[in-house]
Amino acid sequence: MAALVDDLVAVVAALGERPVLAGALMGGMTSLFGQSDRGDLARALILVDIVPRVGPGGIERIKAFMTGDPNGFGSLEEVAEAVRAYNPHRTRPPSPEGLRKNVRLHEDGRWYWHWDPAFLRIDGEPARAATHEQARAAAARVRVPTLLVRGEQSDIVSDEGVAELLELIPGAQHVDVSGTGHVDVSGTGHMVAGDDNDVFPRRLLGFLTDLRDLSAGA
Fold first, then answer.
1. InterPro entries this protein is in (predicted)?
2. Radius of gyration of the chain from its Cα atoms, rounded to whole angstroms
3. Do 187 and 200 share a domain, yes or no?
4. Are residues 185 and 138 in the same domain?
5. Are residues 106 and 138 in the same domain?
6. Which segments in the chain show pLDDT lower than 70?
């Protein structure tokens, strides 16, 4: 995890101002650890379907999905089928064109995920791994407004995981902004942003607007 945090700190330094960090899974955990290590790194955190106590079954299912199909896909329709196999609860869009942002067209004419599956094999790279206790300790040091967004059908973040995060990061008086807001997006699994593109940005914009108003009144 230290290696990813170092990268994040370098990116934030290049921005020249404190951003609101938003991330899912590895991105969210990196943001959590980065803010924990450097209390002035971000103005706020948005954690998408990630908490210190994650469901191991859900994590393994995501790893299997993200490391699958190393030989790519022959069409966007095949990409859509892979997504549906992973998340059968997701409403089928009228066209697979929206998946272009998740894949890249290689010179061989096949579509590949925009991530490198090899990056997810962290067994030999402990610098990118984090234990539950390490994540708990990191969350306990966070003192910026934090929003947790969880898919209602998530198999990664349980009710117990949510309760633990809310206990670790103070802010019960201002659940939506000053402390930790918890938003369940109905009918979604882990792929929250892709599952409900109306609810997800609306929740985030509400959080960011409240954060701006809070800063203006300070």
1. AB_hydrolase_fold, Carboxylesterase_BioH
2. 18
3. yes
4. yes
5. no
6. 90, 121-129, 152-153, 171-200, 216-218
- Find the helix or strand (DSSP H, E) in which 161 lies: helix 159-168
Task: Give the total number of structural domains in the chain.
Answer: 2
pLDDT at 121: 67
- Does one domain contain both 144 and 206? yes
Question: Cβ(67)–Cβ(120) under 8 Å?
Answer: yes
User: For residues 120 and 128, what is the distance between their CA atoms, to the nearest angstrom?
Assistant: 9
**Where does a domain end: 100, 120, 140?**
120
CA distance 39 to 42: 8
- Summarize pLDDT for 115-174 with one digit per residue, the tens: 887 777 655 554 456 788 999 999 999 999 999 888 766 788 888 988 999 999 986 322
Whole-prediction pTM? 0.77
Q: What is the CATH number of the domain that holds 203?
A: 3.40.50.1820
Q: Compute the distance between CA of residue 162 and CA of residue 208 in angstroms, rounded to an integer.
A: 21
pLDDT score at 171: 60
Q: What is the C-alpha separation between 7 and 92, in angstroms, rounded?
A: 36
Closest CA to 23 of 6, 5, 2: 5
One domain, residues 91 and 173:
no
